[in-house]
Structure of Protease HtpX homolog:
Amino acid sequence: MNRNRFAPDRGLTTRMVVTMFLIGLLYVVFVGALLALLRGAWPTILVIAGLLFVAQFWFSDRIAAFSMGAREVTPEQAPELHGVVDRVCALADLPKPKVAIADSDVPNAFATGRNQKNTVVCATTGLLRRLEPDELEGVIAHELSHVAHKDVAVMTIASFLGILAGVITRIGLWGGFRRGGRDANTAMIAILVPLVSAVVYAISFLLTRMLSRYRELSADRSAALLTGRPSALASALTKVSGQIARIPTEDLRASQPFNAFYFAPALSSGASLSKLLSTHPTLEARLEQLSQITRELDRR
């Protein structure tokens, strides 16, 4: 088992196990229901579901990096960013990941990879232009803590199952209808399958959102304790959130699909329902936690 110096978080580990168990159980029931309703299409359902899952697990890091426009850079091309990554990895006793930059004015960063050997940490040009070195160090430590805690892989798998529900449903309906006739049973299937799929997707969506918000707080805490400078991370959070508010809405909407990966959400709302569906906790909650860590460190 790989060891690192990021503070362990038993709460995060427990939540990841519970979330994966509940989502796994949910999808066993879901696939079972589809197989019962669409008996003629079960080979297609199982084969396609298996292939999609394997492809997502093995290539999710490359897909995410490509989708967000990340390009790998050498130490000569980005000496400051590489220097920060080197310092954080030395502090955390982590192997150095691939370092990338995304050409975007939206100030943000993300890390992706199913394990420490396949990790890519990426910062946008907008982030590099706006942050001081100690603030950037806090952001990079936050992102690498996701990899150290393995919640990147868990979120990748958990999020993909929601997509899988829709794909399996479409395949099952297509295969079932081609093998069935236009009778009352077919009409009932046409109602039940999308309904079951929608319920499954909604439950898995809420479970992953709850885990996502907690893991962001966990990454903030781990990064602050590792660097010993929670105020620098708080400054980065405040600066990034303020700058994001000034970015044109159309640019933010282009980044919004990747919110779950980002250091800070591209778009957020103060409404209570939006908070429930958000990938990140509120800025106020994150700053309050960092203030508490500052007080803890001062007492020590």
